[in-house]
Write a structure and sequence with these properties.
The protein is of the alpha+beta class. The chain has four helices and four strands. Helix 2 packs antiparallel against helix 4. The longest helix has 11 residues.
């Protein structure tokens, strides 16, 4: 099950304010990701947010396609509330008010994965 990391450039010195915003985050309505026909195409398994100076990273653990994760997140009210509250602390303006803008930002902010280690890919796994 893959992980994705989403980057944010924030104004340094506001770590405590940003932490408070995330403490009040309204979670997604469901972790289950469905396509237009209502079929399950993935699931959000967990996330974590890290901040240091002007760098913030959200790590997402999921099943399915990262494109479907972005589509799902773009429709969640809590995500849009969070984005609005974060706006004053961001070093770069982002258009995330619409689902299309959010999906575009999501796609442009994903870090390239160069390694994902899990118990399944340890030497001798499955032996």
């Amino acid at each position: 099950m893959p992980y994705a990391a989403i980057t944010y450039k924030v104004k340094p010195g506001h770590e405590d304010e940003i932490e408070k915003i995330f403490a009040g985050f309204r979670r997604v309505s469901t972790p289950v990701i469905r396509d237009a026909a209502g079929e399950k195409v993935g699931e959000l398994l967990g996330s974590a947010v890290f901040i240091k100076d002007e760098f913030m990273v959200r790590v997402i653990h999921y099943e399915g396609s990262i494109i479907e994760v972005g589509r799902h997140m773009a429709t969640q009210g809590g995500v849009h509330d969070l984005e609005e509250k974060l706006a004053p602390y961001l070093a770069e303006h982002r258009d995330t008010k619409t689902p299309e803008g959010f999906r575009r930002h999501f796609a442009n902010s994903i870090m390239r994965s160069i390694a994902q280690l899990t118990p399944e890919n340890y030497p001798g796994a499955g032996a």
